[in-house]
Amino acid sequence: MWLFIAFIILAMEKMNLIRVTVDLNDPKTFPKSDVDREAVRATSEEQIAEHKKEDDLFLKEFFRKGCRY
């Protein structure tokens, strides 16, 4: 459970959040994917490894502080 919460906190720090309004009776209002596929394709294995190191370091620090953010 704590690990999940830590990842949510990490994701919220790194991502811009947007508000989406959905009418459950109108499928046209459902959000579309906003993934930048070109950016994903252009991401190198080295960049992925660097982000993984950052994530691991964040989690170590998070748990070292007693799961308090």
Descriptive notes:
The chain starts with a helix and ends in a 5-residue tail after the last helix. The chain has helices at 2-14, 37-42, 45-64. The protein has one domain. Helix 1 packs across helix 3. By secondary structure, it is mainly α. The chain has three helices and no strands. The model has no long low-confidence stretch (mean pLDDT 79).
List the helices and strands and how they pair.
Elements (H helix, E strand, L loop, with lengths): L1 H13 L22 H6 L2 H20 L5
Helix pairs in contact: 1-3
- N-end to C-end Cα span: 15 Å
Compute the number of strand runs.
0
**Percentage of residues in strands:** under 5%
Q: What is the C-alpha radius of gyration, as a whole number of Å? A: 16 Å
Number of domains: 1
Mean pLDDT: 79
The ordered H/E elements are HHH
Number of helical stretches of at least 4 residues: 3
**Which term fits the overall shape?**
flat
Q: What about the largest sheet?
A: none
Helix content: 55-70%
Label the structural class.
mainly alpha
